[in-house]
Predict the 3D structure of the following.
Amino acid sequence: MHRAVFRTAAVAAAGILAVGTLAACAPGGDAGSGGEGEGGGTVRVTLANHVWTDIIKSKIPEFEKETGIKVELTQLGEDQLSDQYNVKLNAGTDELDVMMYRPLQEGKLFAQNGYMADLTDLVKEDADWDWSDFQSGPVETTTYEGAVVGVPLITESQVLYYRADLLEAAGLEVPTTLDELAAAAKTISEANPGVAGFVARTARSAAVTQFSSFLYSFGGDFMDDGKASVDTPEAVEAYEYYGGLLNQYGPANVSTDMSWPEAAAIFAQGQAAFYTDASSLYQNLALEENSTVFDKLGYAAFPAGPAGSKPYAIPSWGLAINEGSSNQANAWAFIKWATSFDSVLAVQEEGVPGARTSVWEDPKGTASFPPALADAIAENAKNGVGYDRPLVVNVSEAREIVGDPIVVGITGGDVPGAAKSAQEKFGAFLEDEN
């Protein structure tokens, strides 16, 4: 039985510090000595508490045997990881070699400050490792100003969850467009009192990531050439659509403070026909112990808007090399091994989605996922956008600003006015940040 992807939130929240040095399987040496496959040296690897880490950690002896490189592993909770990076990277440390990081949260800050080594030449030099095999959305996010600064590890995209029984009773096909989604939500909610046609995140900041797919599919974006663009006609239409679905066909007296646990619970309790959210949350809906609709659950790729289907397809975690490290050759040897086809396949077989296209095309790589979900994820990857929030340094503040029109739409307010206000605030924010 594979491990549930949704466990990652609980693992990370626990924040348990575990630092250990794994025994070498070959003669070691100083941190800067030796090289890949040449039987020498060590590499200091800092990883987050995560299911991916648990799986890859068990395989590190294989890496040590293959390369003769001894791995010194530090494993930290997310908050502790951030604290260590803030202190050590600001001080220009050479004590970190490989760093597990969140491309969408601290990626721009780290790249802008020169904390991450340029991997552009390294990723291109090994045809067998094959950089072109990585999905375009995650690659976009681990690239900064044309330079590759990280390799994506764990991915997710936004899928459409639906109640197959309600669609069948209404004589409806699975929506493939946003227009069809709205029409189906209306039909089902009118025919089933007490059942919402649609549910999704509603909290100002939390909803931004899920709204992003709607924004892109309407032809909008948070920024255009580095400038705020949240009041364009396309953006306003997306805000009105997302807010309108929840206002008209959402749960009765819908809260404007729901993140994924609350929204997922409504769907899992059979109180909504459609739910859009991260693919990584599926076991909260698919397992009998978590859901009353586990046997009625359907999955589909994100529906197309006027600009097509453009869901986010993001790397939630990646690996980078500390620019200040004097041990970059061994660091790259570890990253290349940890993100090889064999390693990604082994991790994905345990239910943790990776970023390699070939692994998603391999039956072994999708065996632990419901077939329809695997198909939806693969379809999303074709046109996926590599970010689900504004790519800025102060992500939290930006999300609060651009999320305001979402809440206004949910409550039936003046969306164009809210978008105009958000444009002014976000524009000022970007000027200050730059």
Notes: The mean pLDDT is 91. The domain at 157-312+392-433 is CATH 3.40.190.10 (D-Maltodextrin-Binding Protein; domain 2). Residues 211 and 242 are 7 Å apart (CA to CA).
